[in-house]
Amino acid sequence: MTEAFRLSGLVKRYGAVLAVDRVAMTVARGEVVALLGPNGAGKSTTIDLLLGLITPDEGQVQVFGGSPRAALDSGRMAAMVQNGFLLRDLTPAELVELHRSMFAEPLPVAEIYARAGIGDFAGRRCGKLSGGQLQRVRHAVALAGDPELLVLDEPTAALDVDARRSFWASMREFAGSGRTVLFATHYLTEAEDYADRVVLMRQGNVVADGPVAQVRAKVTGRTLRAIVPGADEWALSALEGVASARVQGDRAELTCADSDRTIRALLREFPAASAIEITAAGLEEAFLALTADAQEVPR
Ligand SMILES: Nc1ncnc2c1ncn2[C@@H]1O[C@H](COP(=O)(O)OP(=O)(O)OP(=O)(O)O)[C@@H](O)[C@H]1O
């Protein structure tokens, strides 16, 4: 595996708050990784540690085998962080030029404009731009050094649906060329749709790390729905493989520990059952189960 970055045993305390508690992960080049977790889980702190904006109390950060500072200075790593500072009196065009001038092999201007979608307002002062437009300018600035690793903290928070879609299309193209992306998000659908791998944090710890399907599978069980004429809850709960049953009129909803056994038993005991549908738990169920004592429900 060619490594993009490695976090080993990271600990960060703020007074009595343990913001990050022994976080470890290794991300290979070409991976697109989503960092998920409820408010206060430690996502931003982990990102700040990766970027070298804060130093860990314990543990190590390696980016392309060196320090975060070296990776940022060479343009190999770039970031888009929440409310990243932009000079109000400069135009996006000037900002892009300023950032390009810092790197030996910057991305061509036209490519930056196209990827970040800033062409329409590149000549206007940043102080006059909307929140969504400013977010695109941050995207443009992050692309200036033609980075191999992009680190994004809630990149689409200020974007409307269309802008969000074009942002991810651009990210997909970026990652398609073998580059690495780590993004923190509250949108589970973004993780599901765009990440190869999901790292789920809770109270400073990594509680799940793997491909989306694997994280989903941490929540075992499937839901079986069917029309079952004359069914009663007691009889359905007693079927093999059923953990719990709910009945409304002829509609039955069974939570199954083993849906294969349940479907056989259902058809044996209730041959008139129809419109049978079995669904796996989604990422949302996994998120809720794995972050059970968290306060916030994800969007
Ligand atoms: N500069 C700081 N000073 C004191 N406490 C901090 C500081 N930064 C973060 N914390 C605390 O550390 C914990 C982790 O915060 P962090 O911002 O990393 O979480 P997060 O997962 O990014 O949350 P959100 O989804 O709300 O952005 C929280 O309890 C937070 O209050």
Automatic annotation (TrEMBL):
What SUPFAM superfamilies does the record point to?
A: P-loop containing nucleoside triphosphate hydrolases (SSF52540)
Q: Which UniProt keywords apply?
A: Antibiotic resistance, ATP-binding, Nucleotide-binding, Transport
State the InterPro entries in the record: AAA+_ATPase, ABC_transporter-like_ATP-bd, ABC_transporter_ATP-binding, P-loop_NTPase
UniProt-listed Gene3D superfamilies = P-loop containing nucleotide triphosphate hydrolases (3.40.50.300)
Q: Name one GO cellular component term.
A: plasma membrane
- The yes or no answer to whether the keyword Metal-binding is present is no
User: What Pfam families is this protein classified in?
Assistant: ABC_tran
Which PROSITE patterns does the record cross-reference, listed alphabetically? ABC_TRANSPORTER_2
ABC transporter domain residues are: 5-228
Q: Name one GO biological process term.
A: response to antibiotic
Where would one find the signal peptide in this protein?
Answer: none
Tagged with keyword Membrane:
no
Query: Where does it localize?
Result: Cell membrane
Please report the record's description of how this protein sits within the membrane.
Peripheral membrane protein
GO MF term list: ATP binding; ATP hydrolysis activity
Q: Which PANTHER family match?
A: ABC TRANSPORTER ATP-BINDING PROTEIN
Name under which the protein is recorded: ABC transporter ATP-binding protein
